[in-house]
């Protein structure tokens, strides 16, 4: 409608102005909309805007009037061919981890994560579920369904960049969606501490009430509260007040309650009375799914082998995984090439380098020994006390999983003669990791320390 | 219109305008320069519908008025006049110029047909005032890495944007990339791709007498205010690639050496790299504290040039020597830091500490 109208307007104008003028100014113009007040016309550039305003506005108004359209004003705007000034990809960040923050979880201290604000991007629908996090996912959905009754408090813990914040906020968003008047407050424990300190310093009143009048309280990164005794006490009272009134509390942390050493006993027991759930690193298939979804969000379809290559090579956390993907997409966009496996191979060199690769077998043994408060000589000795045997087996397991050493070499590193010892030990730890949470955590923690 | 101006002022303003006035256009008036009296001054303007330039010069106005005159003829004529006062008079679309024995009449076109110069809303525009020296340096350091491949228009300009409270300039052609932090602390938000031709024009127009340059941005245009001259330009439509992903935060090997040494060995190695498209292989040797460049011209011979350098780890990478030379030329300071990780990752060049607001990234050649 607008199009054919504009074409006939153009046809008429073409007859009245010199050809060169018509071609220069009227080509690539478009009538965007008309109503009684305003007609909006898109023109190709800033020069045309001014030219139309001054020279052609009256003429256009007259011709439009002939077609029965009499707007009071005519507005000329520059046509933008998909120019998105605040597009997602342009909110760039200095390095990888920052860049991925915006996709997965805003770091709690960032200024945009103000107290009480949920980020609407975190929803259940864009959380990718795999075997490593389906328990957490289900529990969170249950909480969103029946806040305050099902699992209270809900305690989510797991390593960095695995989706704790995403899930916690998804619960909040879901509750708000269902009951728009529900007061859902999301804060990082750091903010909590800061506000508490300020309330003491400036003798502000009302802090104790601020968080006691909410329906859902989400506290991110609880571990930061651990060594602050007074804050813990304040939080303890807040916790009690909320729990008493059946208000939902969601807490995330990088460790389970009992592994936060400085947490006071009364808080620890309270944290554990609800539902502590751990989120594990996603398995290969889930990682593939994450890459696929994130790539398609950016409007890119990756080949299967590229996805698998990325999933295979980044195993530490989802944030790094997305960092690698973002890097690949940015690189391809800049070079104007398709993001295929060769490009990924060239770039992933960087990703892998982003965590120091030069872990040596000696470092693994030393750090494992140190973790269990043993000496390196003890761990390599012939002693067979239980408190030495398990660490030794863990060290062997890590040598295998991190450095891919051969069994005879592993046995040799730890002063064993027979490589079957190494095979047995590694198998044993592999099995225990699946069954024994304690071992699993220990291994994860040592692994983290290796790459600090 | 009747007025008199000095030959120097008129010649300078005309030559700036004639650079912009377009020669190939369907609209004949665009190859003309606009002369118009503005109060006590004469405005000289031209546009090619991508850029518009205008300049005010002091004049003794007798009668007000305006006219447009073919750019080339008037510019060349005035530049050949002696340095004296030039008298200009317009009658019936004819411009007569008199100066010390030279008299000429040039046929003009009515100024009414000249396109209106774009306006910018000073209140809503984002504006910056930048030291001339800094601006010249920043543009010079980034413009060289912009692309001239018109199939990817967003890369044919320099990307001015605010990021974490600072104003950055960045440009890339897909093979190299440069980033300059121009203003360290700013509250304004901007995201604009300025065409390289505009920036070149800005560089030509600035001179050392001017201390500060004002830059105004709105959604679709940018204006540089250089003393009495103004350059207004469209912005390139589109979004710039998320280039920060590509700047490696860490590198395996970091080499520190005097910039002159690095330039010297690159020049020499480049002589033997003409056949191979400039390809030189750089080897860093930690034990010997040497950086050496190797290039082969299959027919002619080969070359190895080395310089003493502080090397943190061994490594090898192949680069285009021309890119390397250009990068070294725009870096400031005595010492240069060269970082790389293996044969495929981007290499980073930056100056020692002092000028750390500039980074130059070069993609390795696949060897």
Question: Summary?
Answer:
The complex is a heterodimer of chains A (452) and B (367). With 452 residues, chain A is α/β, with parallel strands linked by helices.
Provide an overview of this structure.
The complex is a heterodimer of chains A (452) and B (367). Chain A is built from 20 helices and 8 strands. Chain A is an alpha/beta fold and 452 residues long. Chain A has a 5-stranded parallel beta sheet with strand order 5-6-7-4-8, with helices on both faces. In chain A, helix 11 packs across helix 12 and helix 17 crosses helix 19. Chain A starts with a helix and ends with a helix. With 367 residues, chain B is α+β, with helices and mostly antiparallel strands. Chain B has 3 domains: 112 residues, DNA Polymerase III, subunit A, domain 2 (DNA Polymerase III, Chain A, domain 2, Roll), CATH 3.10.150; 120 residues, DNA Polymerase III, Chain A, domain 2; 115 residues, DNA Polymerase III, subunit A, domain 2 (DNA Polymerase III, Chain A, domain 2, Roll). Helices cover 19% and strands 43% of the residues of chain B. In chain B, the strands form 4 sheets. In chain B, strands 14-11-12-13-26-25-24-18-22 form a 9-stranded antiparallel beta sheet. An 8-stranded antiparallel beta sheet of chain B has the order 6-2-3-4-17-16-15-10. Chain B has a 5-stranded antiparallel beta sheet with strand order 5-1-7-8-9.
